[in-house]
Amino acid sequence: MMNKENTQACCAASRNNFGSMKSEPMLQKSEVDSIEKMIELKGGKFLMGTDDKEGFIEDGEGPVREITLNPFYIGEATVTNLQFSEFVKATGYITEAERFGWSFVFIGLLAEKDKEKDFQVAAQTPWWCAFPGAKWNQPEGADSQITERMNHPVVHVSWNDAMSYCQWSHKRLPTEAEWEYAARGGLVQKRFPWGDDLMQDNMHHCNIWQGSFPDYNSMEDGYLATAPAKSFVPNNFGLYNTSGNVWEWCNDWFSADFHKNGLAVNPGGPTGGQAKVMRGGSFLCHRSYCNRYRVAARSKNTPDSSCSNIGFRCAKSK
Domain spans of the chain? Predict the structure, then answer.
């Protein structure tokens, strides 16, 4: 195995320093313009961000600020393998992972025989391997498939891939502010979509890592990798899995300080940057190192990056 430097957070991996590629051209839209499986939200004022002591100052989670949003629609769940397969079937779209010939796979998901293969790993996060052949419909390489995971979130999709799906389906990615408003489900300044305590009523409410990362996952929540897109109890707005399961791409460019002097009405982030915002955390998050499954937590990745734990949900203006 060869090591490559990686400056991303340990809960995601980036194609940065692994080469670059131009994105696919945008596609002709589908003939169906539908808000099926989307939830209408009234918008209005809410408190975005956090000053929680558990937060990451360097990520720009704070300060808490009042934001006003117009009404919008957002997906009740992340886009699934079934939905993405319909897009690919209709358009012949080829994802960036397929064009690169590899995508980042969490090494703990590989079959034992595959762990002996020659692949590159990220130097700072050696649990991420650039695995040949990994793509949306073969998440762990050529010997894997999604037949039993059609209702799971599609993964190994880049921001560019997500944007192409959105254009085809007459939708868009949510802004970071829209995502957080929706994820909070009407609760004010709570740590999670269901309250301040991770365990509530002695029940798990999200798919994250239990045990000792990255060597042992006790799977107390029932899952080693992704869970179905509609798992656990939805929040008060009816959204599923806004904490854990998969990171979700947002439309905004990432900045740790732009919002401190940014717009208070329908903010959309900086006009440019190097990485796009991701929200929600994933099945790999653990409080010991990546406490980013909190509703105010943020992360980032380059628009061409794809991993075992990154997906997306769609939004639409009203």
Answer: 38-318
Q: How far is CA 220 from the centre of its chain?
A: 22
3-state secondary structure of 273: coil
Is this model's pTM higher than 0.85 or not? yes
> String of b and e for 145-173 (b: at least 16 CB within 10 Å)?
ebeebebbbbbbbbbbbbbbbbebbebbb
Count H helices, E strands: the chain?
4, 15
Assess contact for 41 and 74: CB atoms under 8 A.
yes
| DSSP structural state of residue 76 | S
Instruction: Read off the pLDDT of residues 233-253 as tens digits, 9 standing for 90 and up.
Output: 999 999 999 999 999 999 999
Query: 83: helix, coil or strand?
Result: helix
Instruction: Please name which of 206, 170, 186, 234 lies closest in space to residue 291, comparing C-alpha atoms.
Output: 206
Query: How big is the CA angle at 70 (ends 181 and 38), to the nearest 5 degrees?
Result: 65
Please check whether the domain covering 38-318 is classified as CATH 3.40.1080.10: no
